[in-house]
Amino acid sequence: MQTSPDRHEYPAHWEADVVLRDGGTARIRPITVDDAERLVSFYEQVSDESKYYRFFAPYPRLSAKDVHRFTHHDFVDRVGLAATVGGEFIATVRYDRIGADGTPASAPADEAEVAFLVQDAHQGRGVASALLEHIAAVARERGIRRFAAEVLPANNKMIKVFTDAGYTQKRSFEDGVVRLEFDLEPTDRSLAVQYAREHRAEARSVQRLLAPGSVAVIGAGRTPGGVGRSVLGNIRDAGYTGRLYAVNKALPEGRKELDGVPAHRSVRDIDGPVDLAVVAVPADHVPEVVTECGEHGVQGLVVVSAGYAESGTEGRERQRALVRQARTYGMRIIGPNAFGIINTSPRVRLNASLAPETPRPGRIGLFAQSGAIGIALLSRLHRRGGGVTGVTGVSTFVSSGNRADVSGNDVLQYWYEDPDTDVVLMYLESIGNPRKFTRLARRTAAAKPLVVVQGARHAAAPQGHAVRATRLPHTTVSALLRQAGVIRVDTITELVDAGLLLARQPLPAGPRVAILGNSESLGLLTYDACLAEGLRPHAPQDLTTAASAGDFHAALSRALADDECDAVVVTAIPAVGEGSVGDAALAQALRSAAAAAPAKPVLVVHVELGGLAEALSAAASTAPQAETDQPPHIAPRPTSTEERLPTAEAPPEGEHLIPAYPAAERAVRALAQAVGYAQWRRGAADPGKVPDYEDIDEKGAAALIDGLLARGQGLTLGTDETCDLLGHYGIHVHRALPAPTPDAAAEAARTLGYPVALKATAPHLRHRADLGGVRLDLADEDQLLRSYTELTELFGAPAELRPVVQRMAPRGVDVVVRAVIDPAAGAVLSFGLAGAVSQLLGDTAHRLIPVTDKEAASLVRSIRTAPLLFGWRGSAPADTRALEELLLRVSRLVDDHPEVVAVTLEPVIVASHGLSVLGASVRLGPPPARDDLGPRTLPAY
Known about the structure:
This protein is of the alpha/beta class. Helix content is 34%, strand content 22%. The chain is flat.
């Protein structure tokens, strides 16, 4: 690397892996003096036309002077980046800082000329767009605020790269050249463009893994048994529609088949492309396999091999090397230590997993980080039993293992627009990038339900998972997920319960629930469960045990026709006696009544009625029956009457299947989750706005922050500095004057004016009025001095107490407002009532910054003690509008200035009119080098 004294240290943090438009990957890194040969080789593979567009003249080869100029950079005023695949350049970009006259310059000049060159074979893959994002981020880091580029009018591709980026720009034409100038400050449009490109690229990368045209199983054993041979058999038996190959380097010469599948000793020997390789060889042999796959042009890997990060430090290093090696060739990885992937689409029929049976085709996308949990979920969805008897199936299944590369975020990108997936179920043991996951989850949940269960909630993430450190407790992360529209559940049983309801029933319009059935007791249990879940149940309608199928049909029809009903829960127990209703007749009656009112969800609570459950679902699949040449699905052996598979024909496509549950609590909990999700989705259509306040002085605050940070890398501001910074955002803090002696206390009170409060600010007494360290409503000097004496007698010398005097604020409700920058989740705004009770109850609500006006209003109302702000027991309502405005101003401060890493306002007294901020602290730190506004990158390894 460059070591000359006039050069800055090599900026390793600029290195990044990116996903390109076609789903492949490339590595972006700074160009150094060691790249001279790579640069020359790259240039030789560029067409004469592309060279002409770059240099505006025929330029067949680079001179030695050119090579020196393009490889020697100071990483400040002159920067070059290269995109590489297989260690070789496929594109380059560079900027040179210029002054107002267009000549080379140094800081404080804030403009630079930028130019690109992309190898012809890689044009159209989005390489230039990715490079522009990264070179723009580098330039902003180095104080450059504007790029200029000169492009020939015929170079439409490069003009489009600049104009499509979304930056504010202007265009001019002079001397036969188009000159483009654009600001580098991210705009709403540039971020939207960046996110859209990220989505398309990552979705395409997953699509290449889930729908490959050809698959090679590497490590398929010569004899039956073993992981590789099992996966090979599962792919073959599922009826995979593409080309399938078996690879084992130990195959004897001349052997051409393995279980009827073409066999080879190396992937290099396969005549034709291989899109996906399933790697099932010992970990020590995986690097050799990856090299062969990369050189053959394989697009992606599913690594089922174990022995990586889950096995300890040595395995963790082995895993890092695996990811780096695969990305070198532009390949993405599922795994290692993965259970595999499944795609039930009739166009693919891929079971590249250890699951011996392919699940039924359906509309649920399933993601599990754990193979064991993946097996359990597939089994639950596959069979009729386990308590959940409404049948549905799987569209695609991904078990990521150690998720070293492809994660739940990537799969969400794919499922968001997958027409074969209506509901997403995810089992997550860790969230590597909570901020991105929340962003993607919000977008996905606005289109289709996303149900998540988190494992390892009370322990560290599994050893194989690379996870960013976070200071947020699990409850906070869960609250942020719910804010994003995620349906959070606690168990895999609840995951399946909710998924089956959402997959085949409409969303409820509200919380009003009708209950009917042939058991008064079961109806009352359901009624109580509805109340416990916050629903609004009607009084249960008891049809008595003598009810016929016709009685159920009529009662359900009336309930569904009632405008005061949003959903119906039907309870059913076995009937005994001559003429009692049969399972098939009852199921048909319920289904026909529900079909007449398809806009409202219907659930059934049944007691040991396997036959009814089968009849209600009346299908082996929610999708049309597969073609006749598809291998039959073989279910696991039933373990109870409830688990028998149905034998009835499928209902007409589009007809709602009625999910049935063995317990009222489970049915009602699933319904409550659907009600909450439907309410969130209606609100998501209008998320509100981040208001502008005319009195906010963003530039003044920025100048103050820059001056303060010049003192050091991070600091907690003093009282005056805190008040000054908050004042730039219209947040005014009541002055508190130090009172180290009784005379100083009296002088402070005269300055502020009576009545006053006397407070001890020692760490163990601060914000602890319950300990007696605060005296309020001191009307004169006598009361003040008497209180001063009491405090010192109780708690010690003034030097220990750190007493202050503050003017009394109007009475009201004490609250706390906090904002922190979490390394994983980003900026988070928190709110709760002040005091020990709220702390003990954990009664704090959270929102991601920036917060909209609607989110601020919901934040205030979301804590359990919120009634105290709204006139509880006849008290005067607090000024919640002023409180919401304060929350929005704090959100703006932290969002506008990432250097503000923590803000605490405590206490804030919210009176009937207005509020008073009595205490505040602010901590500054250096802004993160990369944040969610930065360029697209894959997690670093």
